Amino acid sequence: MTAFVPLPLTLVLDTPRPGALRVAVGGDLDFTTAGELLTTVAAALDGGSLTDVHLDCGGLRICDSSGLSALLTVHRHAAAAGARLHLDERPPTLDRLLDVSGTYEHLTGEPAMSDRWHSTTSD
């Protein structure tokens, strides 16, 4: 049997343009690492000059319920600071978690995957 080896969370920050923050998220966003994402984004939002926060989730391997809670909290902090949260390059597993939890549209601004599926099958 193969043991599951957690991957540490990596966060690489970049400012591609004034008012925008890009955070490349890699590894596992879970109970042990969710606080790190929250602390990092909250510190970046403290300046008050951001209008867009892009989380590049392309390197995200796992997101559990604590990770989802962190994403919802980041969304809330960004909105309170007047910034819009973008979840870019989402892996299918994250899209599925957002869909099943009912948070897809809230966090992405797009219709939920299950809603899109139902509308195409009912035609």
Automatic annotation (TrEMBL):
Pfam families: STAS_2. CDD domains: STAS_anti-anti-sigma_factors (cd07043). Residues 18-123 form the STAS domain. Gene3D superfamilies: STAS domain. This is Anti-anti-sigma factor. It comes from Nonomuraea wenchangensis. The lineage of its organism: Bacteria, Bacillati, Actinomycetota, Actinomycetes, Streptosporangiales.
